[in-house]
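Hello forum,

I keep getting stuck at the same step: I have a sequence, I want structure tokens, and every attempt I make locally crashes halfway through. Rather than fight my setup again tonight, could one of you with a working pipeline run this one for me? It's a single chain of 117 residues.
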Amino acid sequence: GDSEELVMAEPRRVDRIVANLVDNARKHARSEPRLRVEGASLLVEDDGAGFPAPLLDGEPRRFRRHSGAPGSGLGLAICFAQARAMGARIELSNNPAGGGRVRVSFTPAGATAAQEG
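Reply #2:
Ran it on my machine without issues. Output:
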């Protein structure tokens, strides 16, 4: 059966993250992004061109552009800031088959600072 994992999250921040990730994916992909929950993580995947290499290496900065690629703009920078404010992490990657993948990893409820190490 499906296992549920409780996480610490602030609904307003989660709303902003999801809205920005979906908006970003819609701008860069051919079809609707796919959202899925895996344990304490939310995955947003699209079928666009994927993220440029420099963006995979570090946190997006507002309106930064990489070698002629469209800038990551405000959307991803907002996502990273909102995630950090509630103790979540965001990882950007590219699907081997093409497209971008964003994983938002939330802190499990009841976790202590010692467990997060």
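DSSP finds four helices and six strands in the chain. If your local run keeps crashing, start a new thread with the error log.
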